């Protein structure tokens, strides 16, 4: 459970209010209702909360299958999509959908994805959380020119996990992701299948993001603007509702925002059961009343709706700003129906993580950016990103411990590594809470916080980035490169 003690350890106290701009306090008292015209405060056409059903992201079918591989084709293009009711918005898309289609891959089967760039600007497709060779990682400068295509090959040798794809073209990634270039990549495996978790139509993706719209329904992009992106979208729809049966559901949640951190809870205060994070399943289920997700992080969790009477309406709420409570304080609503047969379960043991090897090297990293009004640069260890510079040299096969500190005074950051999943050893000298006990590739750090991470570099060699995944910050320079050789 995420107790108040854990919240303090995460920095989720009133002392962090200024750091995230939360209006009226960090832990807000929220109701299940909201403004009848929820988007008006953001200058957009009016939206009635919980008036549109939750869309299901399209699952991309392979155009070819062999005994060992699945082949996909994806076109990046500019199109229009109805996000706000009654109006169409220009967005950047994978295969014309917002968000992009979901690829359901399997451990041990190679996914071959041909990405066709029909945009008028370069793009790079990164499989976030994937362990892939450099040429298939989708790096910042390894871009696809307009009118050209590139084939990415994913061997899928890692354990099952909730991964995602997004643009990574440096200095453009922030706006490209904001305007829609992202999609889920759900990697399954036989060990997970055998657990009996909710599956099929009871396994539901929830892709969270925020946006700002103008009076014409156009998406407004301004670099490093967390304050005005106050329309909350789930699977591309504003404040949707979902009809659920009174039984267990598994939710695969992604925070695909550029900047917004979510602290999520059900409005009745009941607990959910978190079963996984970035890199796959947790060792054991973690009952918690709160889910904490910074940009790029994923949470895999189960809600048992069987304890609710038919007709119950539950709101998924957000306890963290910035923005008005009636806008950012609510995410979606669950409308509970009749009971249905349910043979799914959540076992007491989900997976066994490998023992932590003895580290050969310890390193320290400081994340900082210019405070508001003092500049527009962001740094790792005092340096902005330089594609021609190697910041960290790593011996292949080594295990290292990285101590990462957010030295900003008022600004939260997070820290994401390409190629490797890590284990969080501690936060500010204290053990992590159970939901952070699994494999991670992104860790949240509020101002002044420190986390110690253990990483093993025993898969691929080459040059990979690490960066803040509050993606506007990485576009401002908070990114560096490691060379594994």
Automatic annotation (TrEMBL):
<feature type="domain" description="Plastocyanin-like">
    <location>
        <begin position="78"/>
        <end position="190"/>
    </location>
</feature>
<dbReference type="InterPro" id="IPR011707">
    <property type="entry name" value="Cu-oxidase-like_N"/>
</dbReference>
<dbReference type="Pfam" id="PF07732">
    <property type="entry name" value="Cu-oxidase_3"/>
</dbReference>
<keyword id="KW-0479">Metal-binding</keyword>
<comment type="similarity">
    <text>Belongs to the multicopper oxidase family.</text>
</comment>
<dbReference type="InterPro" id="IPR008972">
    <property type="entry name" value="Cupredoxin"/>
</dbReference>
<dbReference type="InterPro" id="IPR002355">
    <property type="entry name" value="Cu_oxidase_Cu_BS"/>
</dbReference>
<dbReference type="InterPro" id="IPR045087">
    <property type="entry name" value="Cu-oxidase_fam"/>
</dbReference>
<protein>
    <submittedName>
        <fullName>Multicopper oxidase family protein</fullName>
    </submittedName>
</protein>
<dbReference type="InterPro" id="IPR011706">
    <property type="entry name" value="Cu-oxidase_C"/>
</dbReference>
<feature type="domain" description="Plastocyanin-like">
    <location>
        <begin position="376"/>
        <end position="483"/>
    </location>
</feature>
<keyword id="KW-0560">Oxidoreductase</keyword>
<dbReference type="Pfam" id="PF07731">
    <property type="entry name" value="Cu-oxidase_2"/>
</dbReference>
């Amino acid at each position: 459970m995420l107790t108040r003690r854990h919240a303090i350890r995460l920095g989720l106290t009133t002392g962090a209010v200024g750091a995230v701009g939360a209006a009226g306090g960090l832990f807000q008292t929220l109701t299940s209702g909201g403004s009848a015209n929820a988007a008006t405060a953001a200058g957009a056409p009016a939206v009635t909360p919980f008036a549109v059903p939750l869309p299901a992201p399209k699952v991309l079918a392979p155009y070819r299958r062999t005994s060992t591989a699945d082949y996909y084709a994806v076109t990046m293009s500019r199109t229009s999509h109805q996000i706000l009711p009654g109006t169409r918005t220009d967005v950047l898309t994978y295969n014309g959908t917002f968000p992009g289609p979901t690829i359901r891959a399997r451990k041990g089967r190679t996914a071959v994805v041909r990405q066709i760039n029909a945009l008028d600007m370069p793009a790079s497709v990164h499989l976030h959380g994937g362990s892939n060779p450099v040429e298939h990682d989708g790096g910042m400068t390894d871009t696809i020119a307009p009118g050209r295509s590139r084939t990415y090959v994913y061997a899928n040798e890692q354990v099952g996990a909730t991964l995602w794809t997004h643009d990574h073209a440096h200095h453009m990634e922030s706006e490209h992701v904001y305007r829609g270039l992202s999609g889920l990549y759900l990697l399954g495996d036989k060990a997970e299948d055998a657990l009996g978790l909710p599956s099929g139509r009871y396994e539901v993706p929830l892709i969270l993001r925020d946006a700002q719209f103008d009076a014409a329904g156009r998406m407004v992009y301004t670099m490093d603007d967390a304050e005005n992106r106050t329309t909350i979208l789930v699977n591309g729809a504003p404040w949707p509702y979902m009809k659920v049966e009174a039984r267990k559901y598994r939710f695969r949640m992604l925070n695909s925002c550029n900047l917004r951190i979510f602290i999520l809870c059900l409005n009745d205060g009941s607990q959910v059961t978190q079963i996984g994070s970035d890199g796959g399943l947790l060792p054991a289920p973690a009952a918690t009343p709160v889910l904490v997700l910074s940009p790029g992080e994923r949470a895999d969790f189960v809600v048992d709706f069987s304890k609710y009477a038919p007709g119950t309406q539950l709101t998924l709420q957000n306890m963290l700003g910035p923005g008005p409570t009636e806008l950012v304080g609510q995410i979606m609503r669950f409308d509970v129906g009749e009971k249905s047969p349910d043979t799914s379960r959540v076992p007491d043991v989900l997976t066994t993580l490998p023992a932590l090897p003895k580290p050969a090297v310890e390193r320290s990293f400081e994340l900082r950016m210019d405070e508001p009004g003092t500049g527009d640069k962001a740094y790792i260890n005092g340096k902005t990103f330089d594609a021609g510079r190697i910041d960290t040299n790593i011996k292949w096969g080594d295990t290292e411990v990285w101590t990462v500190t957010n030295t900003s005074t008022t600004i939260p950051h997070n820290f994401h590594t390409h190629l490797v999943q890590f284990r969080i050893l501690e936060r500010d000298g204290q053990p992590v809470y159970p939901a952070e006990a699994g494999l991670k590739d992104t860790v949240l750090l509020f101002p002044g916080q420190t986390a110690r991470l253990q990483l093993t570099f025993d898969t691929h060699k080459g040059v990979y980035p690490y960066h803040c995944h509050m993606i506007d910050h990485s576009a401002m320079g908070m990114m560096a490169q490691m060379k594994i050789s």
